[in-house]
Amino acid sequence: MVRAIHFPNLPFELLMPPSSNNVKDIALKTVPSASKTEIKRVLQSVYGFEVEKVRTLNMQGKRKYRGNVLVAKPNYKKAYVTLKNPLSISPALYHPINSIEDETGSMK
């Protein structure tokens, strides 16, 4: 018997937490069709987090007029996840361009 492992097609974008040490609550940006149970299962199975609670918000994409044309960004879902065990996050995750510039500067 062959077992198939299905990875979900659920993209996440990590939003900046208030501090990078002992983070217990994280905010994620994902697709609007994601449910709380899907988000929890993906974080537990794929990323190995122990999730205590998931809260979600449906967010409207921003709309702007550029001349006579309406330009709209896509809608998204924001998920606030409470973890059972706190984790520390590297600040380089949020500013990858700055960390690359620092590395190239130190190589000179």
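Next protein, fold it too.
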Amino acid sequence: MFGEYHHLFRQLKKRPDNFKKYMRMNHDTFKYIYFKTKSRLQKRWCNLHSKPILAEESLVLTIRFLATGINFTQLSLTFRMGISTVRKVIIETMDVI
């Protein structure tokens, strides 16, 4: 509810230049990857607030990891997920991709 995905990412979708800076790809490329992987990314993961982790959220998390090289600890803080959840989501999303 308070992580990057639920606040920042939704705003970035409305600003193509900032979206590209954040995701290191344009929104059309992201949508293409998302729609190709969506059905296989839907899981019943839960974050610290017991809300399901969405397929799009998993993809954003993984692309941020791949684009920036930021470590799992930092991602867990900014996305408000446990470190082990971040690790599992990224590994499974990379397998799908």
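About the second fold: The chain has six helices and no strands.
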